């Protein structure tokens, strides 16, 4: 099993920045990619972006240029650097791990990000 714990959320003014962290533990050798998702009140959960074991990233169009995903493999930690935040970025941000061998994805508990106008 893989356990994921997010941290770094909080309240920030529009135009500000935050960096979220996701620490993975357990059977981390089964992780083939990690992603950030977010869910705003009353909306479906949406993909923010993904980073593979090889470091390749891709982002949802609305996040390109403002959000950056990175990964510190020795520490089994993924980061989400969010710049130029907007009120519409307010959401609970979740960490996800896509696992090998057909195992069910792992999810973190989420961290709240609130952007005030």
List its salient traits.
single chain, 117 residues, mainly beta, seven-stranded mixed β-sheet, four-stranded antiparallel β-sheet, 11 strands
Structure write-up:
Strand 5 and strand 6 form a beta hairpin. With 117 residues, the protein is an all-beta fold. The termini are far apart. The strands form 2 sheets. Strands 2, 4, 5, 6, 9, 10 and 11 form a 7-stranded mixed β-sheet that branches. The chain has strands at 2-7, 10-13, 18-26, 31-39, 46-52, 57-59, 67-72, 77-82, 91-99, 106-107, 111-116. The mean pLDDT is 95. The protein contains no helices and 11 strands.
Spell out the blueprint of helices and strands.
Layout: E1 2-7, E2 10-13, E3 18-26, E4 31-39, E5 46-52, E6 57-59, E7 67-72, E8 77-82, E9 91-99, E10 106-107, E11 111-116
Parallel strand pairs: 2-11
Antiparallel strand pairs: 1-3, 3-8, 4-5, 4-9, 5-6, 7-8, 9-10, 9-11
Q: Which secondary-structure class do the elements indicate?
A: mainly beta
**What can be said about the biggest beta sheet?**
7 strands, mixed
Measured by DSSP, the beta-strand proportion falls in: over 45%
Order of helices and strands: EEEEEEEEEEE
Tell me the distance between the termini.
40 Å
Distinct helical segment count: 0
Rounded average pLDDT = 95
Helix content: under 10%
Low-confidence parts, pLDDT < 50 over ≥5 residues? Answer: none
DSSP summary, beta strand count: 11
Shape: globular
Q: Determine Rg (CA atoms, Å).
A: 14 Å
